[in-house]
Design a protein that fits this description.
A hairpin with a 5-residue loop joins strand 1 and strand 2. The termini are far apart. The radius of gyration is 25 Å and the shape is globular. Among the domains are: about 20-125, Carboxypeptidase-like, regulatory domain (Immunoglobulin-like), CATH 2.60.40.1120; about 285-370, Sandwich (Immunoglobulin-like); about 375-460, Immunoglobulin-like; about 465-590, no CATH class. It has two helices and 50 strands. The strands form ten sheets. Strands 33, 34, 36, 37, 38 and 40 form a six-stranded antiparallel β-sheet that branches. Strands 42-41-50-49-48-46 form a six-stranded antiparallel β-sheet, with no helix packed on it. A five-stranded mixed β-barrel has the order 16-17-23-20-21. By secondary structure, the protein is mostly beta strands.
Length: about 600
């Protein structure tokens, strides 16, 4: 079954956009006569003000601190947990566009139909690492591991339009339609404007992002054209049309635009493009907006539930999730009978019903989920500052059943519904005004009401090191941290008062990028090894060095992988305990 996510879109589109403009690919976007972006924005309803909370992570699901978030005219940055909060953002009531930027990564974005509750967002940033180089003046082919190809004619230009000569670095990322993380990785959502200026829902056959850099890391574009090839996934080959529209993503407007076609040759699609950004091979569907609300038998809203609208024949599906009020909104195919599946936080289907066919925008009657598998509890508590005053601007970040969720603070207190499909959960409370937190705490769910009492945010996180071993509780070090650069090497060390969870991280490059343990990376600490301060010599860890600032500025790194613990067997030292580890460091450089 093909799975696609239609995370609808979030941006305040400026109504002064003219019919011929440049997006950030450096090439003009030409709108059809009479169908400018300003005209198209009329599909999004009225201007509205909505609340958002979300997390920015890398492809290994590690949080990315210091990413810049933009929603309409509102701008903020992610904290040490990769989390951002934007309240009262000016968007449309059927369209919101969120962008996330961070040095070393491609621009990430999400488009959604915002609800009136607190909208939760997750964006997974892809690394902006060059995987190949080509030379000007000669035809070159760049092939990806999945079978996608880009054929260059050798002619390139700068964003200003002048001819470029020299080596060209190629950053290329392919997204398979069956990728379970497609929702988080892809830009915007699968919503588009076709060449007639009509809004369309897309059914993707694959996406490709290509960015070009010159020898001085300047952005480049094609001087003429390039050929791109996509493999057709095995599950889609029987229904793949002989020709298919090409769509590029407009990173200013926040949706896809039709531009050209591709032809099916064997089991691949081949098309010609004039510029590079995100390209998508998609069929187009007419759509309507659908809103729904889920409650239990006692009329309590059901948050964090996954809703999946499935087309007949399981040809494609459209996931969404409910907000803190149990509401979900999104686009679905028009005039089709769909199957609604509702999954709980642990991934079990707890409700199925038929929906449609729908000819117009629809709000379904409240759906009551009367399932014996639903055991709700109200988790409540108070977030306190160190002086015992209530935190008025903050959030709680809680995890259970392998998923992460967020809840905003209201007048110092928090209260949210959780499904008891897991016996325990972890939680951290964050004071955004003082940049401090409670540390990660563990709790057990109780039927009916789970009162966690007061969470005191006395841990400063102007800088922090966080890590988790074997998917266990997150360990956070927010004091006794040193970070230094010596030549081309860095060293980060942090300890806790009891010295139980201390960790040291070092590497022999200070240039942002993706590295492996073969690149001189070292990791050791009391929290990892039964032999204190022994370097781990048997490990396979990849890490992303996001930023190395000047003295007094931040060093940011995220890492994940496996290692083998050093243990004593009798009088002999050996390696026989395998572990996994993920972590981040957001630390201030001392020298």
């Amino acid at each position: 079954m093909k799975k696609f996510t239609f995370c609808l879109i979030t941006v305040l589109i400026c109504l002064s956009i003219i019919s011929c403009k440049k997006n950030n690919t450096g090439v003009p976007d030409i709108d059809p006569p009479g169908v400018t972006d300003a005209d198209f924005a009329k599909n999004f309803g009225n201007v509205a003000h909505r609340d958002f909370i979300g997390q920015i992570v890398d492809v290994t699901n590690n949080p990315i601190p210091g990413a810049t978030i933009k929603i309409g005219a509102s701008t903020t940055q992610t904290d040490a947990n990769g989390i951002f909060v934007v309240k009262n953002a000016s968007v449309y009531d059927r369209f919101a566009f969120i962008t996330a930027t961070k040095a070393g990564y491609l621009i990430g974005s999400r488009t959604l139909v915002p609800t009136t509750g607190t909208n939760q967002v997750k964006i997974m940033l892809l690394p902006a690492a060059a995987g190949a180089t080509v030379n000007t003046g000669t035809t070159s082919t760049v092939s990806l591991a999945n079978g996608a190809k880009i054929v260059f004619d050798g002619a390139f230009k700068t964003e200003a339009g002048s001819t470029y000569n020299g080596v060209v670095s190629v950053i290329a990322n392919y997204l398979d339609p069956s990728d379970t993380k497609l929702t988080y990785k892809m830009p915007g959502m699968l919503f588009a404007k076709n060449t007639n200026g009509d809004p369309k829902l897309l059914e993707t056959y694959g996406m490709l992002n290509i960015e070009l850099r010159g020898s001085a890391n300047e952005n480049l574009q094609l001087a003429n054209t390039a050929q791109i090839e996509f493999p057709v996934a095995t599950a889609q080959q029987a229904n793949a049309p002989s020709t298919i529209p090409l769509w590029h993503f407009d990173e200013t407007a926040g949706y896809w635009k039709e531009e050209g076609t591709a032809t099916k040759i064997g089991n691949k699609y081949v098309g010609t493009v004039k510029h590079f950004s995100w390209w998508n091979f998609d069929t187009q569907l007419s759509s309507v907006y659908l809103s729904l609300k889920l409650v239990d038998a006692n009329n309590q809203p059901l948050p964090n539930m996954t809703t999946i609208m499935v087309r007949q024949g399981n040809s494609s599906s459209y996931p969404n999730s409910t907000d803190n009020n149990g509401q979900a909104s999104g686009l679905v195919p028009q005039n089709e009978t769909l199957t609604l599946n509702v999954l709980n936080a642990c991934g079990s289907i707890i409700h199925t019903q038929s929906v449609g066919p729908l000819s117009t925008n629809t709000t379904l009657p409240t759906i009551v989920i009367n399932s014996p598998t639903i055991q709700l509890t109200t988790v409540s508590g108070t977030l306190k500052k160190c002086n015992n005053n209530n935190v008025t601007n903050g959030y709680v970040y809680y995890s259970y059943a392998g998923n992460n969720y967020f809840s905003l603070i209201s007048n110092g207190t928090f209260s949210f519904q959780a499904l008891m499909c897991s016996p325990t959960f972890t939680m951290i409370g964050q004071d955004l005004d003082n940049n401090s937190n409670s540390g990660m705490l563990g709790f057990s769910f109780s039927p009916g009401v789970t009162n966690v009492g007061n969470l005191t945010t006395c841990n400063t996180n102007l800088e922090s090191i966080t890590y988790s071993v074997d998917n266990g509780a997150l360990k956070t070090i927010s004091a006794n941290i040193t970070a230094a650069v010596n030549g081309n090497s860095f060293n980060i060390s942090g300890s806790t008062p009891a010295q139980l969870d201390g960790i040291t991280i070092s590497g022999n490059s200070i240039s942002p990028g993706n590295y492996t343990t073969a690149s001189g990376f070292q990791l050791y600490g009391n929290g990892l090894n039964s032999q204190p301060n022994q370097a781990l010599t048997q490990f396979a860890i990849s890490y992303n060095l996001n930023n190395v600032g000047a003295v007094g500025q931040y060093i940011d790194i995220s890492f994940s992988g496996t290692y083998v613990e050093m243990v004593m067997t009798g009088n002999m030292m050996g390696y026989n305990v395998n572990h996994t580890i993920t972590g981040t460091a957001h630390v201030i450089r001392d020298n």
